[in-house]
Structure formats: C-alpha cells, structure tokens
C-alpha cells in the first residue's frame, strides 16, 4: 500500500513537472521569442486557459503527500523554511502577473508584468530543481524527525549542508534548461509565424544544453549520494525510466530535425517523466534521506499515515483521477490547434 | 506567549484573514453569476448575459488573488506548523487532498472556459460552465470547513501509540456535524458579501445615473440575495452555530459573551467591555434570559461561566474573541435591517429614487467582509488554546526548529507583498466598475 502511495505522489509530481513545466518554460522564454504586444498575447493565449489547471497539480501533490506521508511534509517544509517561502512568493508574483497584465492596456504596465512573469517563471524551475537535488543528496534529519537548514553554507555537499550548494545549483540549472526547452517546444506547437520560428530556433541549442547538464548531473549524483546507483541492479523501474528518457531525447531530436513540434513536445514530456521515474525508483523507499544516520531517514514505511487512511484516500483518488484527466482532455480539445493573439479584453 | 509561537500564529492569522477576503466574494459571486446565466437561458434576454460577463471579469480578478493567497496557507501547515502536520496530517490531509482533486481542478478548468469560451461553447454549455464553477467553489469551501471542523470538534480519528492522530472513520470525519452547520453559516456569509458588492455597484451607477438597465438589475439581484442571505446568516445558520458552540465548546461561549459566573436566566450582553484582570464585564447593556434561550432553547437554562473551567483552558485572546463576536452579530443585525428596508422599497418600486438608502447600499459593501473576518476570528480564537480541540495544544504544534527571526522575516514579506497586492486589486476592480458593463 505505501509503495502504491509513493508512486501516486511521484506520478502527480511528474504530471506537475510536465504540465506546469511547459508554462514555466513559455514564461521564461517569452521575452525573447515574442517581441511585441500582439506576439506576447499570442503566448498568453497559448498558456492562458491551461496554466491555472496545471498549477493545481502542485496543490494536489502537496495534498497527497500531506495525506499519505505527513511526517515527510512536516519535516521537509519546515526544514527548507526560507526556500519554501521563496517558492510561495514566486508563485504569487507569477500568478498575479498573468492575471493583472491584461486589465490595463498601457505599455509600461504590460512591460512590467511581462518582466515579472518571465523572472518568476525562470526562478520556479531553479527552486524545484534545487528541491529535487536536496532530496537526492539528503538533509541533516536527526532523531526528532525534523531539521532546519540555512539557504547556503560553504557551497559544499558535506555537513553542514545548505539548501543551495554546487550540486543542488546544478540540478536547479538542469531543471531550468529542461523546462525552458520543454516550453519552447510547446510554444512552437501552439503558435505560428514569427513566434513559432523563434521557438524552433531556440529549442535546438537549449536541448544541447539540457543534454550536457543531464550528463553532468548523472556523474555528480554518483559523487553526492552513491546509494542511488547502488540500487540500480534491483530497480527494474529505474531502467524503464532511463529507457523512457533516452527515447524522449531521441524523439525530441527527430522532431526538431523533421520540423514536427508536437512530436518533439511529447518527446520532451517523456524525457521529464523518465528522468523523474528513474530518480524515484533509485531512491525508493527513502523520501527524505538523513545525512547524519540512515536510521533517521524518513521512508515510505516509517512515515506513512497508516493503512486505513491510505486505503480510504486511494478509494476516492481512483475516482477523482480519471475525472481530472477528463477535464484536461476536454480543455486541450476545446483549445486545440494553433492559437491567435486574443483580442484585447477577451481572456488574457 | 513566547516569540516563536506568537509569530507563527500572527502569520497564519494574517495570511488566512487576507486570503478569506477573496473566496468569500467569489463564492457569493459564483452563485449570482449562475443565476444570471440561468436567467439568460430561461428568459433569453441579453441583459442577463451582459451582467454575467461583467461579474465574470470581477470574479476572475478576485479568483486570481484568492488562488495566490491560498497557496501559502497550504504551505504554512508544513513550514510553520510542522508538529501539527506530523500529528494530524494523516487525518486532515484527506480533506485538503480532496479539495485539490475534486474542487480546484473543477474551478480552474471551468473558469478558463467561462472566461475564454463564450463563443466556442454556445449559451447552454457556457451556462453549464457557470454551474461547474459554482459547484467547484462551493465544494472547495466545504473541504476547508470540514478540515477546520476537525480542529474544532475532532471526530472519526484515533490516537495512535506514538501520540499522533490516525483516521478511523472516514464518513464520520467527512460529515462531521460541526462541519455541516459551520458550512451553512459560512456560505450564507459569502452570499451576503457577494450580494452587497453587486448591490453597491448597482447603487453607484444608479446614483451616477449611468448604465440604467444593468444598474437596476444589479440593485435588484443584490438586494434580494442580500436580504435572503442576511436573514439566513442569523437564522437558522447562526443560531445553529451558536447552539453548537454552547454544546461542544461551552468555555468559548462563555468567553464570547464575557460571562464569568454560571447561572440560570443568562443574559445577552449587547455592549460592554470585558475586564480580564478583574474578571467582569464593564458597562454592560443586557437582555436577561436571552443567552439561555439562544444556547439551550429555554430562558431558565443554566449557562456556564468561565469560572467553571480551568484557567488554562480559557481562550487566550479573550477580549479579541469577545469583540469579534459582538462585531459579527452587530453587523449581521444591521445587514438584515438595511437589506430589509431596501427590499421593501424595491417591492414598492421606490428604491431607485431613495437616494439616502442608495448611498448606504453603495458604502456598505466593506462591512460583510468585516463581519465574515470577525466570524472566522471568533471560530479560531474560540478554539484556543487548542489547535485540535481537547487533543493538541497550539503551543505543541509549531515548527520547533524554525528560528523566530525567520518567521518575523517571512511575516514582514507577506505584509509588504499583500499590501501591494491589495492596492493593485482595488485599483483594477475600481477600473472595471468605472469602465462599466459594456467595456471591451
């Protein structure tokens, strides 16, 4: 049962990364690929009807973690205190910049919110990537089941650790590059004309950067937490995840070469899911690794909410999940095809 | 209260109060938008569609701010209340996760369709999207109230060997009797807020002599919904809520009414200042017997005073609780009077010419926000010093390892951010109202 929940949380996290990932990427990139107000409204029309729902995956994932593994949420959120508030404030600024921009047709007003949107969209992937890096590296959990670490210390991966060190910064940059490249493919798929051309042109170098950073992170992980690879021979799902992300990378390359943005976009989604699946399979069952003593680590066995709670949650979740998928299918269907810049006043 | 506990409580109270200004309006507006869309379908008149479009614009802005100010609350359970999350997360995580899966996706999906899809969907489906949005936002309210209800009146759980709480009866937890009553009262409060805002815009335009048909429509819809909502907020929902507090949290009732000594024929204190040091109420104006009647249905019932309870179970911010309760009840009574008068004149067809009353309706819109915030304060301060009533003390729920300085810093960050956010929101809503219904 706890294994099922571990994977449910992982699936929702992966969905969040893929779905909100493309609108983070689109946001981070839009200052460069969309140069005037009409082009920027085209970008907003592409993500406008979707981003709000995408963001809900974060709340759904947080809720599931709270339900299934309250100790992990309690330790992680209070331990990364300041970083968590950076996430919160970034999400606030990002949300209102999309919402407020359209209400006033003034150049400076729009330029300001475009800038805020781009900055917040670029910062979120770095923060999420650093979080992933922290989970892989481990944190100084002690016998109380809690920890609290500063934002950074000496940038080294040894004790005392900070939230940011060279390794978590590397994973942060990897996720930033990946989601920007992912967003470029989404925009290339949904737009036409100049924005489409610039996105296709940006995607190639971005994916080259992703490949280099992914390789670097793979080697760095061996140095930071060798346990991850020690589990490889016993984790068939990790091999499946690796196969998926390599296939995704191949699809991206083929899609870019043949000028088929939708195929490339699906490939980049597979790359992200594969990477996260391989990571989850390698760390299982550990959810928060203690750098002090393995006995203090929080894992799916010692940190779950109990059999009755997990069983109950599963019952309604299998009802809710298909409904949510149906909403998304409907949304994507209604908004299918290339977008046009929304007329002023309609939508965003 | 030590510094860390104070700042954790202050931060959550501040961010939750600011957040709730927005959903109470969207939940109220969702109902009115649904009514407008329904009338548009049923009567086939374009003025209802036009009204729906205007209020969807206001809804969108309000919803946007409501979402971004709601996200911090879910995070703060973990960041600021880590021991509470560890101990109670296995129970309340259920409703919080259900809110995400059942309510938020519904709301965000259909708000997008409502804003972007009027042409693509056609009138019937567009009205169906309004229905879905209404269901989503009211469902979301239920999950939050059910979560809060567990903290007020914990049921359906079991205390495990290590002191944490585990879920035992999902049905009992989800349909907590406390939640049903509190939900009805909270939702009528939200309808009152939405109605007052709609009526205020109608009154404003009528006084200015512009947007005639739309102004009349808002005035009528706002006054009718406001009158029904204000009455329902007092009776039966407020009355039931009061009886519930009397039954399950008698110490909170005593504090709300500033009552130190027990006795029969308990009086309601209309005004008066609680003096905690001397344990009495100064300058009271009283209605004898009424509290006994409200709480237990008979003028002669015995209502316990604070003296009957151990000092360490008294609500910690007694004065704030007392004043919050009296502000809520006082404003609620005024709402019934104001909306009752307006409804009477509306019925007689004289409301549009009653300028002093239109001025009152225009200026009254902030007061439901104050009344609802006061109501939440009463619920939350009445629960103190418990985080989960009778089970977990507030002082034992904080993140023990977080340094007070970090909490002060993040609280100041929220204060600055929310100040800017609030001003921008008011500026944009004022612009929409100034632009009028036909804008765009």
TrEMBL record, chain A:
Membrane topology: Multi-pass membrane protein
Segments forming a coiled coil: none
Keywords for the protein's UniProt record, in alphabetical order: Cell membrane, Membrane, Transmembrane, Transmembrane helix
GO-annotated molecular function: electron transfer activity; oxidoreductase activity, acting on diphenols and related substances as donors, oxygen as acceptor
Protein name (database record): Cytochrome D oxidase subunit I
GO cellular component: cytochrome complex; plasma membrane
Membrane-spanning segments: 6-34, 55-74, 80-100, 112-132, 166-189, 201-222, 237-257, 264-287, 314-332
UniProt organism field: Mesoterricola silvestris
Family as reported in the entry's similarity comment: Belongs to the cytochrome ubiquinol oxidase subunit 2 family.
Location of this chain's protein in the cell: Cell membrane
Keyword Lipid biosynthesis: no
Keyword Cytoplasm part of the UniProt annotation: no
GO biological process assignments: aerobic electron transport chain
From TrEMBL, chain B:
Matching InterPro entries: Cyt-d_ubiquinol_oxidase_su_1
Gene Ontology BP terms: aerobic electron transport chain
Membrane topology, from the record: Multi-pass membrane protein
GO molecular function: electron transfer activity; heme binding; metal ion binding; oxidoreductase activity, acting on diphenols and related substances as donors, oxygen as acceptor
Location within or outside the cell: Cell membrane
Regions crossing the membrane: 20-42, 54-75, 95-116, 128-151, 183-205, 217-235, 320-346, 358-379, 408-430
Full protein name: Cytochrome ubiquinol oxidase subunit I
Species the sequence originates in: Mesoterricola silvestris
């Amino acid at each position: 049962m706890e294994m099922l929940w571990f994977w449910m949380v992982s699936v929702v996290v992966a969905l969040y990364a893929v779905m909100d990932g493309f609108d983070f990427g689109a946001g981070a990139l839009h200052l460069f690929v969309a140069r005037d107000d009409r082009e920027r409204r085209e970008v907003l029309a592409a993500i406008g009807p979707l981003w709000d729902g995408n963001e809900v995956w974060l709340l759904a994932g947080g809720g599931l973690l709270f339900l299934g593994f309250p100790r992990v949420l309690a330790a992680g959120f209070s331990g990364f205190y300041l970083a968590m508030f950076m996430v919160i404030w970034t999400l606030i600024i990002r949300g209102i910049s999309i919402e407020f921009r359209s209400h006033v047709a003034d150049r400076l007003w729009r330029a300001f919110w475009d800038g805020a949107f781009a900055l917040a969209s670029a910062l979120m992937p770095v923060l999420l990537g650093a979080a992933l890096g922290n989970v892989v590296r481990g944190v100084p959990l002690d016998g109380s089941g809690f920890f609290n670490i500063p934002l950074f210390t000496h940038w080294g991966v040894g004790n005392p650790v900070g939230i940011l060190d060279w390794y978590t910064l590397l994973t942060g940059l990897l996720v930033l590059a990946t989601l920007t490249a992912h967003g470029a493919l989404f925009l290339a798929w949904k737009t036409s004309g100049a924005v489409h051309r610039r996105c296709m042109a940006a995607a190639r170098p971005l994916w080259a950067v992703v490949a280099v950073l992914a390789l670097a992170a793979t080697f760095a992980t061996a140095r930071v937490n060798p346990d991850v690879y020690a589990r490889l021979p016993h984790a068939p799902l990790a091999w499946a995840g690796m196969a998926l992300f390599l296939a995704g990378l191949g699809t991206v390359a083929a899609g870019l070469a043949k000028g088929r943005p939708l195929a490339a976009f699906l490939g980049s989604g597979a790359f992200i899911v594969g990477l996260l699946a391989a990571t989850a399979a390698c760390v299982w069952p550990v959810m928060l690794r203690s750098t002090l003593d393995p006995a203090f680590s929080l894992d799916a066995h010692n940190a779950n909410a109990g059999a009755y709670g997990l069983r109950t949650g599963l019952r309604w979740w299998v009802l809710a999940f298909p409904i949510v998928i149906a909403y998304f299918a409907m949304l994507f269907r209604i908004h299918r095809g290339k977008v046009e810049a929304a007329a002023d006043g309609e939508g965003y | 209260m030590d510094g860390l506990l104070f700042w954790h409580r202050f931060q959550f109270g501040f961010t939750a109060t600011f957040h709730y200004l927005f959903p109470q309006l969207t939940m109220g507006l969702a109902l009115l938008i649904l009514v407008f869309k329904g009338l548009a379908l049923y009567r086939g008149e374009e003025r209802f569609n036009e009204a729906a479009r205007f209020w969807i614009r206001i809804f969108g802005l309000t919803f946007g701010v409501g979402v971004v100010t709601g996200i911090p609350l879910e995070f703060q359970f973990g960041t600021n209340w880590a021991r509470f999350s560890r101990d109670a997360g296995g129970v309340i995580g259920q409703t919080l996760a259900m809110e995400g899966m059942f309510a938020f996706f519904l709301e965000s999906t259909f708000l997008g369709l409502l804003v972007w899809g009027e042409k693509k969907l056609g009138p019937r489906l567009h009205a169906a999207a309004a229905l879905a949005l209404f269901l989503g936002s009211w469902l979301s309210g239920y999950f939050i109230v059910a979560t809060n209800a567990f903290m007020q009146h914990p049921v359906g759980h079991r205390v495990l060997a290590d002191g944490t709480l585990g879920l035992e009866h999902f049905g009992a937890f989800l349909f907590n009797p406390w939640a049903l009553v509190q939900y009805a009262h909270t939702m009528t409060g939200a309808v009152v807020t939405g109605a007052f805002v709609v009526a205020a815009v109608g009154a404003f335009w009528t006084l200015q002599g512009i947007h005639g048909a739309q102004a009349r429509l808002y005035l009528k819809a706002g006054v009718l919904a406001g009158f029904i909502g204000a009455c329902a907020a007092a009776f039966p929902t407020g009355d039931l809520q009061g009886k519930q507090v009397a039954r399950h949290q008698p110490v909170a009732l005593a504090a709300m009414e500033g009552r130190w000594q027990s006795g029969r024929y308990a009086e309601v204190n209309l005004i008066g200042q609680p003096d905690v040091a001397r344990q009495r109420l100064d300058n009271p104006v009283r209605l004898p017997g009424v509290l006994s009647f409200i709480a237990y249905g008979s003028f002669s019932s015995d209502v316990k005073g604070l003296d009957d309870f151990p000092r360490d179970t008294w609500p910690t911010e007694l004065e704030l609780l007392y004043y919050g309760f009296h502000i809520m009840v006082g404003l609620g009574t005024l709402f019934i009077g104001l909306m009752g008068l307006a409804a009477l004149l509306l019925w007689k067809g004289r409301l549009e010419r009653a300028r002093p009353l239109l001025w009152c309706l225009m200026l009254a819109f902030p007061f439901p926000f104050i009344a609802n915030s006061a109501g939440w304060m009463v619920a939350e301060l009445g629960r103190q010093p418990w985080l989960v009533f009778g089970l977990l003390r507030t002082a034992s729920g904080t993140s023990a390892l977080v340094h007070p300085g970090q909490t002060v810093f993040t609280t100041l960050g929220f204060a600055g951010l929310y100040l800017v956010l609030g001003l921008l929101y008011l500026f944009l809503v004022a612009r929409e109202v100034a632009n009028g219904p036909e804008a765009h």
